[in-house]
Amino acid sequence: MGSNTEAEGGMIGTVAKQEWRLLKADRTLAAVVVLMAAMVGYSLYNGSSWVAFQRQTLGAAETEQAERKGKLLKTLKGIEEGRIEVKGTQDPRSAASIGGNSSAPYLAMPPAPLATLAVGQSDLYPYYFKLNLRSKQAILANDEIENPTNLLAGRFDLAFVLVYLFPLVALALGYNLISSEREQGTLALAMSQPLTMREMVTGKIVLRGGLLLGLVVLFTFAGALLTGVDLGSSTVWLRLGLWVSLMALYTGFWFGLAVLVNSYQTSSATNALTLAGAWLGLVLVLPSVANLVATSMYPVPSRVEMVQAMRVAGKEAQSKGSMLLAKYMEDHPELMPAGEKPAADFTTLSYAVQMEVDKKVEPVLKRFDEQVEKQQAFVEGFKYLSPAILAQTAINDLAGTSLGRYQHFSRQVDGFFDAWKGYFLPKVFAKTKLGSGEVAGLPVYQFREETDGDILGRVGVVLAGMLVLSGAVLWVGYIRLRRVSIS
Amino acid sequence: MISQIAKKEMLEMRRDGRFQVASAIVLGLLLVSLGIGWQQYVSVNRQHEMARAETREQWLSQGKKNPHSAAHYGVYAFKPKSPLSLVDRGADQYTGVAVWLEAHKQNEFKYKPARDANTLARFGDLTASSVLQLLVPLLIILMSFSSFAGERESGTLRLLLSMGIAREKLALGKALGVAGGLGMLLVPAALIGSAALVLASDSGSFVANLPRLGWMTASYLLYFAAFVGISLTVSALAKSARLALVCLLGFWIFNGLAAPRLFSDVSRTVHRTPSSFAFSQRMDGELKKGFDGEALKKKVMAQYGVTSMEALPVNFLGISLKAGEDHGNEVYDKLYSELWDTFEAQNRLQQQGGVVAPLMAMRSVSMGLSGTDFAQFRDFSVAAEKYRRVLNDAMNDDLKNSPKTEGPYMADEKLWSKVPEFAYVMPEVNVVLGQQAWSLGLLVLWALGATGMAGWAATRRLRAE
Questions:
Q1: Is residue A284 part of a domain?
Q2: Could you tell me the pTM of the whole model?
Q3: Smallest Cα distance from A203 to chain B, Å
């Protein structure tokens, strides 16, 4: 038994060596190296310049925030020491002014360590919000400026190279695994050696697939180093490890498909056409058909409807603004400014109205979010149909540009926003004035990165799905190899 | 003779199972996408029509208010969907659908549909335009890559030429064969598409959209002609059918997948888009500069020939608000035109990418004629902003002429109804054609160049083996 596997391993090694010699002699190897280096290099450059853009923006926002807060503190100290006199209608000490503007922080989600790998959804969803005391809608509306035509095209990032183009290179290397030997008349010769069909095919795909995978991994690691990925942290290594496993399985899938198609003993040209068709179906057509099905089955209610609902709620609340404020004061008598009638000044009134609008709009927003979630949940099942969707999902997760991470961020923003309002709004209604000590001690937002467990959980499922797909294709292909005739 | 060759080509296609399956899939996808496009257009359009009526009603029935409060309440403008968006959704998913027109501020359009989409949406929309721009060219390649190369490999080319068939006729016959095969697929699709358009639009707008539809059909035909030409050229020149297929597939991938991304990257590098943060910082800075209130007072007093503000026959608040609006408008005009010019420069560069990838030209023409490109989004934005100014001016004018009594001044529906309803008309087809001149020119060049090349390759460079 032992000697048998040894011999088998030996034969596979011999085939691989022979393949290597052939590839080297051919121009194919050079072409693949140059092509992969160019595509990986360019896409990583692209990804890193987008990351640099985001970092620069966040840096500028941070500076602006610090300056704003510094100025506020100086003013407050000035007032406290009697150097500055408060004049005009705007009191810099008021809770509305401090919480809504002068000390309002930016809540930012910095690019994840491997963000250069995939632009993902990061060009669509905001990566920082400026807080205020108004509605959440006002905060969320903050998008990065981008030409819609560019958003439509997407970016030439590494994920695009890996998900779309990499399979084509794999298929170009694998479409004639057996058919070329047959067409050149070398198949019978090879099979007259102590070599089974499976050993020959294994030797070939191990070399060709391994070579391709090795090149991609090598170039990506080199690119990651050049673009300043911090290789010191363990989460980076975990993510890179998962990424390599993903790519290995993805490579396995496409070579498995090549084996399967070759097992039908058609000509190289037919194989090429069939494989190109499979690629088209799995990478381009299936995802968009799935999207179409999802959007038809779970249509998202129109935002236009939502705008109208908000407006109606706003109008109602506006018309009974002073009543709302009175009611609020009734509920919270402790907030009543000492020795005053319920204040009906513009600011306080507008916050009372705002709170009512938020309450009214909530069910509309909830219905909206639920429908989006339903659609997304439906789509989640679809991803197991196509290795391309699986790969894209996992790469986005590893790069930290997936919808999942944006939702993770959004939940943190929600929490901080509620805490912020919870701190300031009662002070707005009570007309409390804040001092420099309180402002200096305001909570500071810090983005909590997703844990390795979160990533592992999401990507692990995808890897399992990919393992099943690749395994199934390879398995069927290898079973069929037994029936392949030599002539 | 030519018709015989064409017939033989079509017969072969019909007998080839692969071609049949591929055509059936493409036709199926085309019909499904047209159907879904139609349904989406109808539902979105109905919502927008309703919302438009509602926002007007809300404006009219807002009750007694100070005109400036009314201006703050404002109205919403909803971007209408063009009927031809059922063919090409273009950038519609990536532009906001609604904008709030209020006092003091030119707001951004909000609610990009793409942000509410599921994660698969970024793999690309299945619309009629994506089928026409990506899959039909692939089908053309499939139909024609072996036209010459295949016959040469099987030895029939030598036979044909030895029979004394003129090479011109052979080339023309082959081209017509491909065109015929394509026609079997596209004519029914075009008929169904037109029927969908008729259903989607009322009679008036259908007629109004006919020129757009006509130009669109013509430009797609040019695009297809270019692909037929390219495929036949490569098939005539390539040593083997396999090599022809590899070259053509390579070109298809470059054209359909890589080029849009590459050119969008390049255009972004050449014409830099500012960050939203930098843009709004600049905007705030410019707006803060404000206008000189004291100078305005002096000017107004001089204008009315009075020496004190109390003696003014008009309400200064209206004048000062109007001056504020004017200052703001100047800033908005300057900054937004700069930004939008940047986008248009980027898009122009992408159109020019049509020199190497015909898709870039085709995509631009198709979006333009569908009314779903950036230029027409901008056109709508500008119209909405103009309306905002009309509304604000009406409010401030009324305020200016309001009595200077104690206590708040209230206006009512009489004033609200003086502001006309916002009505938007899409630009004429000529405007679009002007914007798309580059792309249309490139498509014509591609079609002529590629068919010319095919003719040359088939007559001068065709080897029997």
A1: yes
A2: 0.91
A3: 25
